[in-house]
Amino acid sequence: MITTKDSDPSSKIIIQITDTHLLADPDAEFVQINPERSFHAVIADILEQHTHIDAIIHTGDLAQVARPETYQRYLDYMTKLNIPFFHIPGNHDDIRYFPFHTPDPKPTVVDLDQWQIVMLNSAVQGKVHGWIQSEQLEYLDQWLNDNRDKHVILACHHHPFAMRSKWIDQHILKNTHDLTHILEKYQHIKAVLFGHVHQESLNQWNHIDFLSTPSTFAQFKPQSENFAFDEVAPGYRYLHLKSDGQFETKVKRLKGFFQKINKEISGY
Ligand SMILES: [Fe+2]
């Protein structure tokens, strides 16, 4: 799966990574997995499979141990790739240390000419569930109205729709209705990307694809009533954003990357 832009030179190649859950000590393990090693293996695969990447989007939970050194190491590693990269916090992140944190509620907008990616912060300090502040939603509404000639992708950390997994659905984005109330007014939103659920999924609503992506770390068992790990490989999502407003997307998992998870862990 080597992707190129040969047939559509103004198209864009985007990679979504999510839920790296990095520790303060890069050699340490959590549930018998080294998140650093798993993250680096994912990035190595991305670089091997893609000859050109316009941006890497991280949809949150950069850190499992949210300390300045964890984030600094992430930033140092990503900067060396020489690929534009962007991130939003997840419930495990601490916005006191989160890279480039600003009290300004304005979402980050990734400008890719005809395509734009709006990154919304859905993390609530001290909570596992998600909520998008009204100031961000007001900004989003105005921005969508002002940019009707663009193709738009939104990104946030939390899942807007239920995953039919009782434990994880307690930790859903709790004001999805406020978001969809805005989205239903517009025709130029193509997809919403998120992490948090550590599994691949596709939900379609109002002609918009809602897409979740595997973690670069450990995976959660789909449709499980109680917390449960899934023994499938870490991965990432690529998106080929075409100049006609269509897009193709696929999840890629690492081949032959065996992880023995400590299943005794029973909480999140
Ligand atoms: Fe996570």
TrEMBL record:
A Pfam family that the UniProt record links to this protein: Metallophos
UniProt KW Repeat keyword: no
Segments forming domain Calcineurin-like phosphoesterase: 14-199
Keywords: Hydrolase, Iron, Metal-binding
Family matches, as SUPFAM superfamilies: Metallo-dependent phosphatases
Keyword Metal-binding: yes
GO MF: 3',5'-cyclic-nucleotide phosphodiesterase activity; metal ion binding
EC number(s) per entry: 3.1.4.17
InterPro entries in the cross-refs: Calcineurin-like_PHP, CNP_phosphodiesterase-III, GpdQ/CpdA-like, Metallo-depent_PP-like
Enzyme class: hydrolase
Family per record: Belongs to the cyclic nucleotide phosphodiesterase class-III family.
Name recorded for this polypeptide: 3',5'-cyclic adenosine monophosphate phosphodiesterase CpdA
